[in-house]
Design a protein that fits this description.
448 residues; Rossmann fold; Sterol esterase Tgl1p; 41% helix; single chain
């Protein structure tokens, strides 16, 4: 058996390796402790942080609220506070006067996925007969699409008001999809999935359900963010019938073969064998204790921890996302997934190839992983990416995808998360989304 690190790391990297092992096991110990904490204790922490937040965030004045140089009206502060402490997407939609209808999709391998359909109380707006399906990224859930302080910057609500039948998907294992017909969420069998299962089961099964339930069109438009784009690329490439069920793919901050991690400290994990990563994090859920810290930490402090993590991992500085918007969005950033999914991404990054998950060795020795045949995609693909996004290798991506049916738009100065949470996404991102959807005015401008 090969030794994963010997001969492959510089001397200065070994101390980092020891520290990384220590932090990983510390996270494991914390997750065990939090598992046994009574709900009453967790609620006490949560109430305490809310009181601290109220004391430090509100400045005296005539119905004006202040946070790090940003003036908010009473109404804006109320929306911000409600978004921060919303427990689910139903509460988030309700803030803006919309409702969420929940639907359960049973996959062919017996997972139960909770997906959402946007609606609104009262008289229904005229339908344009078109369906859009939005899907989130890695370590996320459907809530990422509904965190903007300005209602008109929440893409699902914008599309609903334009007459679209709007659906939001969720991956197995995130907060909305922790149910299997046979396996307990506490078992290794439940968490034994990677990008392959998203592509083989989740995406096609959800699309079939949406088209059958909506019954207004035989095709839909898929809008994905980050891993949500990789999932649909992989899914369409191996499920040829999806070419007849999706009219176009709009890929926001697309990802298929990321450059890798910015931090040398964490790049060690990319070089490691899967067995080492499984030893550190188990073969179940990845870092469940994040949910505990998210609940008990003072929100601006949690913001800072997210910013620091994003910088160390990807060199993101988040300059296009306001501090107030971070408060609204970061609390809904993390949702659970399997360790195996992250291992799969590490394999993709290391081999610079958008490939299926593989065990490095089988009984016959080393074998070549199977690549997703992305050239099989026949439908139009539109890439919207930031030129400061360290996760997007746009040249590699264009070479992987069909040349004739792929277009791309570069958003200058944007990083990965800027394309869904940046203060200028209306003019610089959604404008392109609506253009691809055909929402152009006669004079050539985009209706936004």
């Amino acid at each position: 058996m090969a030794i994963p690190f010997l001969g492959r790391l510089a001397l200065y990297e070994y101390p980092l390796l020891v520290v990384s092992f220590t932090l990983a096991w510390l996270e494991y110990i914390i997750s065990i402790i939090t598992m046994f904490l009574p709900d009453s204790v967790i609620k006490l922490f949560t109430i305490t942080t809310r009181q601290i937040y109220s004391l430090f965030n509100i400045a005296q004045g005539e119905k004006q609220y202040y946070y790090k140089g940003e003036d908010l009206t009473t109404e804006e502060h109320d929306v911000m506070t409600k978004l921060i402490y919303s427990d689910n997407i139903e509460q988030m939609a309700e803030i803006f006067g919309y409702t969420i209808d929940n639907h359960i999709v049973k996959t062919k391998d017996n997972y139960l996925l909770n997906i959402h359909r946007v609606s609104k109380p009262g008289p229904q707006r005229p339908s344009n007969g078109k369906i859009v399906y939005l899907h989130h990224g890695l370590l996320m859930c459907s809530e990422i699409w509904m965190t903007m302080l300005d209602k008109n910057l929440n893409l699902p609500l914008v599309l609903y008001d334009l007459g679209y039948d709007v659906w939001l998907g969720n991956n197995r294992g995130n907060k909305y999809c922790q149910k299997h017909i046979y396996h307990s969420v506490k078992s290794e069998q439940f968490w034994n999935f990677s990008l392959d299962e998203f592509a083989i089961f989740d995406i096609p099964n959800i699309i079939d359900y949406i088209l059958t339930t909506s019954n207004i069109n035989d095709k839909l438009t898929y809008i994905g963010f980050s891993q949500g784009t990789a999932q649909v690329f992989g899914s369409v490439s191996i499920n040829n019938d999806l070419n007849e069920k999706i009219d176009q793919i709009i890929a926001i901050s697309p990802a298929t073969t990321p450059h890798g991690l910015y931090s040398k400290f964490l790049d060690i994990f990319v070089k490691a064998s899967p067995n080492v990563i499984y030893l550190l994090f188990s073969r179940k859920v990845l870092m469940p204790s994040v949910l505990f810290w998210q609940r008990i930490m003072y929100p601006p402090l949690f913001n800072s921890s997210i910013d620091m993590s994003n910088y160390l991992l990807f060199n993101w500085k988040s300059l296009n996302i306001s501090e107030v918007q971070k408060l609204c969005s970061y609390g809904h950033l993390y949702s659970t997934t399997s360790v195996k999914t992250v291992v799969h991404w590490f394999q993709i990054m290391k081999n610079k190839n958008f490939q299926m998950y593989f065990d490095r060795y089988n009984y016959s020795g080393y074998y070549q992983p199977m690549s997703y045949p992305l050239k099989n995609i026949k439908i139009p693909i539109h890439l919207i990416y930031g030129n400061q996004d360290s996760l997007v290798d746009i040249n590699v991506m264009k070479n992987q995808l069909p040349t004739k049916s792929t277009t791309s738009v570069e958003v200058d100065g944007h990083e990965h998360l800027d394309n869904i949470w940046g203060s200028d996404i209306g003019d610089r991102v959604f404008k392109h989304v609506l253009h691809y959807l055909g929402e152009d005015k006669p004079n050539g401008s985009v209706q936004y």
